[in-house]
Amino acid sequence: MSSSKERQNAIKRLKSFLFSSKTDLKSFREKIDEEFYEVHLPNGVEVEEKTYGSVPCDVLKPEMYSKKRLMIYIHGGVFIAGSRAAYRSFVSSLANACSCVAIVPEFRLAPSHPFPFSVNDVQDVFTGIYNEYSSELYDLDEFETNLPEIILAADSSGASIALGFMLNLKPNFRKAISRIVLLSPWLDVSEDNPKLSQKKGGDEVFTSESVRLCVESYATVEKRNTPLVSAALARPEEFQNFPPVYIQAGEKEMFLEECVEFDRLLTKAGINCMLDVWPKMMSLFQLTDDCLAESHLAVEKIGKIIVRHIIEEHAPLEEPEESKK
Asked: N or C: which end of the chain has fewer CB within 10 A?
């Protein structure tokens, strides 16, 4: 659908996430913010700041949204960068498509705050939201009655953090999350993944070296080899009470094989999972709506799946009929 020139423009933008041993960390973070920050948010979305625990968050409100639906979005940024400001425009579009309020935590970043700081920050945000809607923290009946449908969404390295939070959460409290949405997720950054040690490995956006450097800043080898950082290493029984999972990935990204394996793992665990692979697309193509028509379509598709699932309570996770045509 998109032309070759449009693809190249998208890749150029996304390469803002490419880190190297010669890159200055402060400049790297500033470059991502400058590239993706937008002064005016799309679709009339309003932003306000709220703190949960000690974690500042963006609260993004579309003009029209369901009070029964809430999204927590864990941004990417290769563990060492990314921010609310950089992701504000994209998550605004996503919130509008899903007709919900979206909360974007400003969790602490590596290398000064390695694993598990970011996972703990997400836990604090979840607990704050939980307490806001439930008068008794351990009264699950009260919790299920008052809490809105919570969608946990994340991209790239943010998916590792989001799934680390979920796997660290007690199974009873996992019932609070109604759906998980993962975009180009990083699911296996363990030492045993050969993609991280390839000299010329990678894809159109990332190199193996760039991912390895960022992962090494985030977690020790010991921690990387656990499901709390590499969710694909979890055993099927560790997914007790997991909600349905939707994975959206590009055909050209380096971690696509891991997405396929994770889909199989969840299916084996009895979790409803849908892996949606977009032809000819690169990692994080959803973030380049100024370059690619596919970005708009991808966000719209997420919205259709989320909204339809909540209207049809307990419905199986399938593609909308429009997307199959």
From this structure: C
**Max intra-chain CA distance, the chain:** 55
Q: What are the tokens at 144?
A: 């299920």
Q: Which of 102, 195, 188, 105 is nearest to 150 (CA)?
A: 102
User: Roughly how many angstroms between the first and final C-alpha of the chain, as a whole number?
Assistant: 15
316: left (phi over 0), alpha (psi -120 to 50) or beta: beta
- Token pair 């690619």: residue: 292
**If you ran DSSP here, which 8-state letter would residue 267 be given?**
H
AA letter at 68: K
99-140: pLDDT as tens digits? 999 999 999 999 999 999 999 999 999 999 988 887 544 444
Structural contact between residues 188 and 164, judged by C-beta atoms closer than 8 angstroms: no
Amino acid letter, residue 111: P
